[in-house]
Amino acid sequence: MLLTPELEASFRQRYNPEGSNLRKAQLRMVEMLMWFDEVMRKHGVEWFLEGGSLLGAVRHKGFIPWDDDIDVGIHVKDVKRVRDIFMHEKHPQYVFQCAETDPYCFYMWDTLRDTKSKYVHTQHKMVVLEDLKKYRGVQIDIFPFDNHVNMQINNVLRYKEWGKTTIRILGGSRSSLWLAAILHKIQLALYAVARFLSRKKNYWTNAYGTGTGKGYVYPDGTLFPTSRVVFEGHEFPAPHDVDMFLRCHYGDYMQLPDDAEYNHHQLGDIEIW
After folding, report:
1. Rounded CA gap, 245 and 201, in Å?
2. Which of 94, 219, 99, 96 is nearest to 147 (CA)?
3. Which of 30, 48, 153, 185 has the fewest CB atoms nearer than 10 Å to its CB?
4. pLDDT tens-digit profile of 18-31?
5. Is the distance from CB of 25 to CB of 16 less than 8 angstroms?
6. Residue 1 parent element (H or E)
7. Residue 96 and residue 39: Cα distance in Å, rounded?
8. Measured distance CA(268)–CA(123) in Å, rounded
9. What is the 3-state secondary structure (H, E, C) of 69-131?
10. Alpha carbon distances (Å) from 210 to 4, 43, 75, 109, 148
């Protein structure tokens, strides 16, 4: 099913009408993204919208109506640099979430979080994981992309996020937290070893994946140098070949998904103040 102006209007009314918590959160994240872009430009770090945010920019000219976060990509070589930058570039409302600032956040990537909002999960396994985190506000996920990848090894490593899986199975006891932290560090170290042993490829992929086992592959020339795209009325960086990126990631990306994918993060609500 293709998007029409009538469908777009009905989606907006159903999922993120003006004044709704989701719409307020989306507008908050646009403000976060503008500050993120300002900092990255100041330090000369290349980045781009990716995933659902890029799809939203192309198909909806902004957020996909039911989307509740922002996805951006950077070169894997810039991960440490970006982390160092945001350790020094302070904002009164936003915080950089990584292993150093939030030790029980077992993401494989870093995030920028808002401190005046909160995701509300209803699934028990998500509640347990979220309660461990120091920062739980709306977020910008910062995914590293790499062209030194052994896809066979990466697809094994990325299948599950070991720290999160440990908590889901064993709960949030002190011993399970200790084990989860150890396994998380081992998983990250194995990625580093795999990258060291891999040759440069003629394609790029998400360096860590998203815990789903899906290794999306983008041909050389798809990501860099970046281009520009309009998102929520503002211009932001995008992959060099937006169409190729989206086709590699989604296939026929102008087709609308099934209803089951409309709340893929399975949120109950978003609190925002």
Report:
1. 17
2. 219
3. 185
4. 999 999 999 999 99
5. no
6. none
7. 12
8. 9
9. CEEEEEEHHHHHHHHHHHHHCCCCCEEEECCCCCCCCCCCCEEEEECCEEEEECCHHHHHHHH
10. 31, 27, 16, 9, 18
Overall pTM surpassing 0.85 (yes/no): yes
> At residue 162, what is the residue type?
W
The Cα angle at residue 269 between residues 266 and 5, in degrees rounded to 5: 80
Residue 193 parent element (H or E): helix 174-197
Q: Cβ-count burial of 211 within 10 angstroms (0-12 exposed, 13-18 middle, 19+ buried)?
A: middle
**β-pair type (217-219, 203-206):** antiparallel
Residue environment code for 188-209, b if the CB has 16+ CB neighbours within 10 A, otherwise e? eeebeebbeebeebebbbbbbb
- What count of other Cβ atoms lies within 10 Å of the Cβ of residue 92? 6
Q: Cα-atom radius of gyration of the chain, to the nearest Å?
A: 18
What does the pLDDT look like over 176-197, one tens digit per residue?
889 988 998 888 888 888 788 8
Q: Tally Cβ neighbours within 10 Å of residue 159.
A: 14
Cα 160-193-110 angle, rounded to 5 deg: 55
Q: Give the whole-angstrom CA distance, residue 263 versus residue 15.
A: 10
Domain boundaries, the chain: 5-272
Paired with 204 in beta bridges are 218
